[in-house]
Amino acid sequence: MKKLLPALLAAGLAFAPAAFAQDGKGPNENSASEQAAAGQDPAAEEAEEGHAETPHYPLKEPEELDWSFAGPFGHWDLAQLQRGLKVYKEVCSACHGMKLVAFRNLEALGYSEEQVKAFAAEYTVQDGPNGDGEMFDRPGIPSDYFPSPFPNPQAAAAANNGAAPPDFSLLAKARAAERGFPTFLFDLLTQYQQGGPDYIHALITGYGQEPSPAVEKSIQPGTYYNPYFMSAPALAMPPPISDGQVEYADGAPQTVDQYSRDVAAFMMWAAEPHLVERKATGFVTMIFLIVFAGLLYVVKGRVWAGTPH
Ligand code: HEC
Asked: Residues in domain Cytochrome c (predicted)?
C-alpha cells in the first residue's frame, strides 16, 4: 500500500503532459483522425484499419464557455434563463420531460404569480381518479410539475429509435463529465462546476461534422454522429434545433449557438436552483473560518501566556 501511492502519483505525472496536450486542442480538431493521418500514433493508425483497442468517448472535449453563474460570485442571468425556458418549451419538451420542476418554481426566473398561472394553464395535466374512478385531463396549475411527453420510458424509447430521451430535471448535473487527472485538481482551485452546461452546449452545436472512416464504420443505423456525445460516436437524438427556430423578444441572436447556451443555463438552474446561494454561503463560511482560526490562535496565546515552558 505504501508503495502503491507513489507509484500511482508517478504514473499520473507521466501521463499529465499527454492530458494537457489533449486539453489544448481546439473544438474543431478531430485528434484521432488527424494523428492517424500524420502517422504519429500507432494506436490511431490501427483504428483506421478497424481492428484497434476500444476508443474513448467523447471523441472531442467540450469547449469551456463563460457562464454568468460560474465561480464564487456567480449569478443567474434571468433573461438567459427565460430564453432557455422558451427553447425548452417550444423544442426540447416534445421529447424530454422535466418532472422534478414545478411551474411555481418558475417564479425564481423573474415571473409574477399571474404569469406563472397563465404559463401553467397552457399545459394539459392528467389528474384523478374522479368519483367514477376515471383519470381526466385538466389545465395545469402552478403546483403541477412539467408533464412528461411520454407515458413511460418504454413508450419514449419506442418513439425514438430505442433510446428514451432522458428527463431534464437533473441532467445538467448528471452530465458534468469526468475530466480526469490532473484537470480535476485545477477544477478544485478554479471552482469549475460548469461541466454539464459546457457538455450540453457542445452536444447541441456538435452535429453535422464529418466522422473519420474508422469511426463511420461503428455508427449504428438510425443514430447521428456527434463527437461530443459521451457514450458512443453517435446518438439517437436527431439535431434538435436549427437557426431561427425560436423567436427571442429581447434581441438575443437566434442561432443554434445561443439557443444551446440558453437552454444549457436553464437546465443548470433546473438541476440546481440554489447554486448561487450555495456558492455565496460557501464563500462567507470560508471567510468566517479563516477569521475564526486567527482568533483562536490569538486566544490560545493569551490563555497560555502565564504558563512557563
Ligand atoms: C425528437 C426528440 C428529441 C428532441 C426534440 C430533443 N431531444 Fe434530446 N434526446 C433525444 C433522445 C432520443 C435522446 C437519447 C439519445 C441516446 O441516448 O442515444 C436525447 C438525449 C439528449 C441529451 C443527453 C445526451 C447524453 O449524454 O446522454 C441531452 C443533453 C439532450 N438530449 C438535449 C436536448 C436539448 C437541449 C433539446 C432541445 C433543444 C433536445 N434534446 C431535444 C430526443 C430528443
From this structure: 79-271
Is residue 166 lining ligand 1, measured as CB closer than 6 Å? Answer: yes
Q: Hey, what CATH class is 59-101+145-286 in?
A: mainly alpha
How far away, in angstroms, is 182 Cα from ligand 1 center? Answer: 30
- Length of the chain (residues): 309
- What is the CB neighbour count within 10 angstroms for residue 290? 10
State CA 215 to chain mean position distance: 25
Does residue 98's CB lie within 6 angstroms of at least one atom of ligand 1? no
Segment 60-103, tens digit of pLDDT: 999 999 999 998 899 999 999 999 999 999 999 999 999 999 99
| Side chain identity, residue 91 | V
CA angle 91/96/100 to nearest 5° reads 120
Q: What's the pTM value of the predicted model, to 2 decimals? A: 0.82
